[in-house]
Design a protein that fits this description.
2 domains, disordered N terminus, TetR-family transcriptional regulator, transcription cis-regulatory region binding, DNA-binding transcription factor activity, HTH_TetR, Tet_transcr_reg_TetR-rel_C_sf
Amino acid sequence: MCTLIYMTMRNAAATKQRILEHAQRQFAQYGYAAITVRGVADAAGVSPNLITRYFGGKDGLFLAATRVEIPVSTSFDGGRSALGARLAASIVQRWFGVSGEDPLLVLQRASGERPEAAEALAAFLDTNSLEPLHRYLRDTGLDDADAHSRAAAIDAFVLGVSTRRRVLRSELGDPADLQAWLGAIIQRLADG
């Protein structure tokens, strides 16, 4: 009996993960409006009822598929003089290393059509990008207002380039060249 319960839980977790992977891929590729619960269910090889059971429907599935993690704090190990290079390396690695179903890309694309996606993206960026960067800059000797202004400029710049590169699908060239360019601009913004 215990083995059967464990196998059922393990299969449920695997099924839930498979649904999420297909949802992430579809939301990233087509946006929120074009996706249906049935379409995701068919792609994942499950009944639409399982999506309702696990996620509560399309909105819950969208929220689960757009949970984002960015290890931005690893870019703060070291002095401010090399911050641009470290942030640029992390950014370019994500843009070129994470496939099209990146939850951050899903949020960016959906933010124009779903107010909750725009709010989720803004809240995520505030918590995981803007505020940690603000604290880092303040801790490197800038006064609070200057640190916040510079962090906001870096955040806006990176979001703009990300939107252009990933949402509008404009090719920005070689990853190494992009990394060098991003690093130089971010460093200028960090240095004031």
